[in-house]
């Protein structure tokens, strides 16, 4: 028997607001966050954040296959809390 029910995970049915990950509440205390979490902090889309990473506008480190954003560098980029040092 064939299931003709619509696929609830089809890309055209996804909620576009769920494309970024909320950063953890203690994100400023962490060493790194993911690119989607950084996108949320910056108020941009996930794809815009990855484009900025590829343009070297957002600093990243690669650990294995993971691409992570150092929180200190992100805060420096945003100049939050004055100069770090």
From TrEMBL:
<protein>
    <submittedName>
        <fullName>Helix-turn-helix domain-containing protein</fullName>
    </submittedName>
</protein>
<dbReference type="Pfam" id="PF12728">
    <property type="entry name" value="HTH_17"/>
</dbReference>
<feature type="region of interest" description="Disordered">
    <location>
        <begin position="1"/>
        <end position="28"/>
    </location>
</feature>
<dbReference type="InterPro" id="IPR041657">
    <property type="entry name" value="HTH_17"/>
</dbReference>
<dbReference type="InterPro" id="IPR010093">
    <property type="entry name" value="SinI_DNA-bd"/>
</dbReference>
<feature type="compositionally biased region" description="Polar residues">
    <location>
        <begin position="1"/>
        <end position="20"/>
    </location>
</feature>
<feature type="domain" description="Helix-turn-helix">
    <location>
        <begin position="34"/>
        <end position="78"/>
    </location>
</feature>
């Amino acid at each position: 028997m064939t299931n003709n029910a619509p696929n609830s995970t089809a890309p055209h049915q996804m909620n576009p607001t769920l494309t970024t990950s909320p950063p953890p509440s203690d994100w400023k205390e962490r060493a790194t966050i993911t690119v989607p979490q950084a996108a949320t902090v910056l108020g941009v889309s996930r794809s815009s954040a990855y484009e900025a990473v590829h343009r070297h506008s957002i600093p990243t480190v690669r650990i294995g296959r993971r691409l992570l954003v150092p929180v200190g560098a992100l805060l420096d980029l945003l100049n939050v809390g004055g100069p770090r040092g």
